[in-house]
Amino acid sequence: MPNRDLAAKRLLAVTEEELQRIVLDIHDGPVQNLFAALSQLTVLQSRMNALQPFPEDCIVTINRTINLLESSLGDIRDLLGTFRAPEFASRELTEIIEDIIIQHESITNGAVTLEMLKPLSGNVTLPVKIALCRILQESLANIRRHAGVENAQVEVKTEKKQIILEVTDQGRGFEPPPLDGPLATEKHEHIGLRGMRERAELVGGKLIVSSRPGAGTRVRVEVPVYE
Predict the structure, then answer these.
(1) DSSP the chain
(2) One domain, residues 14 and 67
């Protein structure tokens, strides 16, 4: 199918950009904090060697350094956790979705309401599992980064041999770019939306993003249950 082949090619490019984004995120965030912590420790070590008794401002420096290290380790954990392999082939889709939500709640301390409106068939294909779960992860990550709220709603149902996944928040919202047609966005800043679009298209589905400033966001993906 020409359209599916095109989607697969786009997905390869988007995936590579996602990897580069991760590298930049690690470099510009956690790595810079770790360098700052190392600098603080170096200064502290010099002062400890030269001064006795131990000065109060050095205690403050130690505390600041610990906070930097803890923050960095938390950031790294979150980044790596987002891309943890959920063992797609050996687990049911419902179980993977529940684990993704639990992980998101543990990172954000927010609450995600999950509704399974109809039982999902055990015949969900591996590509569909991967596409839905990665779209769910990206949607929840976008809420954490951009929505300004901690809570979200996730709804999963089967309808006319399709699985429908919706992720909704009541956050600040935005003006979504076009995701299909000749004006479909190819901008770098929309890489997350592009990645979700391509994953949906790769398994014969479609992605719809509804939002406006001040009115929250709804991400809806519809994919066929069977290949």
Answers:
(1) -HHHHHHHHHHHHHHHHHHHHHHHHHIIIIIHHHHHHHHHHHHHHHHHHH-SS--HHHHHHHHHHHHHHHHHHHHHHHHHHHT----GGGS-HHHHHHHHHHHHHHHH---EEEEE-SPPPTT--HHHHHHHHHHHHHHHHHIIIIIS-S-EEEEEEEETTEEEEEEEE-S----PPP-SSTT----GGGHHHHHHHHHHHHTT-EEEEEE-TTS-EEEEEEEES--
(2) yes
pLDDT digits (tens, 9 = 90+) for 150-205: 899 999 998 888 999 999 999 999 998 878 877 787 777 787 888 888 888 888 89
Same domain, 74 and 96: no
- Please tell me whether residues 97 and 207 are part of one structural domain: yes
**Across-strand partners of 169?**
217
Asked whether the predicted pLDDT for residue 3 surpasses 70, the reply is no
Question: Residue 51 is part of which domain span?
Answer: 1-83
Distances (CA, A) of 118 to 4, 68, 91, 125: 28, 46, 18, 17
